[in-house]
Write a structure and sequence with these properties.
The chain is an alpha+beta fold. Helices cover 64% and strands 17% of the residues. The two termini are 50 Å apart.
Length: 437
């Protein structure tokens, strides 16, 4: 009798584990991750840095304005004798000079190097923006996978709990029959072995579930915690066909977008390098103010101010092959990025087709497992009826029970594998940011 109460207490404690927890939705997990994820914050800072660089003035398209000022003071003993016999002889003669100017300089033309440099900076800014999107996609993929792993193990735990309840009912019946003298000791022992095996599976799954919950908490940048539940409802996308996915992939995939933007950036880099073969034309102007006071000079004081303009042209005919080196390297960089675009396109389309095959097969397996679960449920119900009537032995009942538990577990696993396959597919197609179901 004592062993029976111990088993009953275990089952009661198992059932209480499902209560007293708040539900964390997938949307809440995603929002939390997007708000505090460190990788996303870093990517956004890098994007802001690229935006700061991609400004006209940083590419040399705006004029430079500078203010210059200075002064000079001297105290000298002066002794000057001229040819006509006159002269200047003065001790402690002071001389004070001041100068101030405002200068403006502008490059009018330098082979369009400054314009192409600005275009290059803008493409690098676009790359940084896509990198933010790529980081968000990676974060979403990690969070979604972690969330669904918790959901999958939650379903497996539920299957284990159902198995415990069935084994507990079998054990209670065997115990009652043994207590009344109408049942064998072997049947009771077999029922106890089955109940213990199901309990072990339950607690093993519970440990895995708690670990998965902690992993999810870390993925969304929260302290490890297991005191929450997740929503196990799954909603699958409709109408995912390979042709539409290929079109979306070529238009929206982040890796392909980055490869193309790198190609454009290096094309502008090459144009800017070629601009070094052309002359540079500059203009400038400014306002100048100058004063002098000299006690030992023919001119005691002097003051001048006014506006000055200048223009210049510079054409480097030879610069020790630096221009040629820049152009050659820029041309090689462009060729490499063109190869990268084509290589990335082929790889991503290959990944898409592989992911689509996995997705289609996963949906097929999920549907088959659903049908298999229904069949095993019917078989178990019939077996249970015959077992309660004494027409089947415990071994046959246990086999039907295990088949039902395994089919339920297989169906749960298949559902989440299919959903992860779908998430991987829409991620490759560049549609993940619009998918949060």
């Amino acid at each position: 009798m004592k062993k029976k109460w111990q088993i009953a207490l275990v089952c009661i404690s198992v059932s209480l584990l499902a209560f007293g927890q708040e539900t964390l939705t997938l949307e809440q997990a995603i929002n939390q991750a997007l708000e505090v994820n460190h990788g996303i914050a870093i990517a956004r800072n890098q994007k802001e840095q690229a935006t700061n660089v991609a400004r006209p003035g940083n590419a040399g398209l705006l004029p430079t304005v500078s203010v210059v000022g200075g002064g000079n003071y001297s105290n000298n003993n002066t002794n000057i004798e001229f040819a006509n016999g006159d002269g200047i002889n003065q001790n402690g003669a002071q001389s004070i000079a001041t100068i101030a100017s405002v200068q403006l300089n502008q490059i009018l033309f330098n082979g369009l190097a400054n314009i192409n440099t600005l275009y290059q900076f803008q493409e690098l800014e676009n790359i940084a923006e896509v990198n933010v999107r790529l980081t968000i996609e990676n974060t979403l993929l990690t969070v979604i996978a972690s969330y669904y792993e918790v959901a999958r193990l939650t379903e497996i735990k539920r299957v284990n709990l159902q198995a415990i309840n069935i084994s507990k009912d079998r054990y209670d019946r065997a115990f009652l029959r043994s207590d009344l003298g109408s049942g064998s000791k072997i049947d009771l022992l077999n029922a106890e072995v089955s109940l213990n095996a199901d309990s072990v599976s339950f607690f093993r799954t519970t440990t895995e579930l708690e670990n998965a919950k902690r992993n999810l908490m870390v993925a969304i940048s929260l302290e490890p915690n297991t005191n929450f539940r997740v929503d196990t409802t799954l909603v699958f996308e409709d109408g995912l066909n390979l042709a539409d996915l290929e079109r979306n992939t070529l238009e929206q995939n982040s890796f392909i977008a980055i490869a193309r933007l790198n190609e454009k950036a290096t094309s502008y880099q090459l144009k800017a390098a070629k601009g070094g073969y052309l002359p540079q034309v500059t203009i400038g102007g400014g306002y100048n103010y100058n004063t002098q006071n000299n006690e030992a000079s023919f001119t005691k004081s002097f003051q001048a101010d006014g506006i000055g303009l200048n223009a210049g042209i510079q054409w480097n005919l030879f610069d020790a092959q630096r221009r040629e080196t820049n152009v050659r390297n820029a041309r090689l960089a462009l060729a490499s990025n063109q190869e990268s675009v084509e290589n990335t396109r082929k790889q991503i389309l290959r990944d898409l087709e592989n992911a689509y095959s996995i997705y289609v097969n996963s949906i097929y397996v999920m549907n088959k497992e659903a049908r298999n679960t229904q069949t095993n449920k019917l078989n178990f119900n019939r077996t249970e009826e015959l077992f309660n009537l004494g027409q089947l032995n415990g071994t046959q009942f246990r086999e039907a029970q295990l088949n039902l538990a395994q089919s339920n577990a297989n169906y749960s696993n298949a559902r989440y594998l299919a959903k992860i396959a779908e998430v991987q597919l829409v991620r490759i197609a560049g549609m993940l940011l619009g998918d949060s179901n």
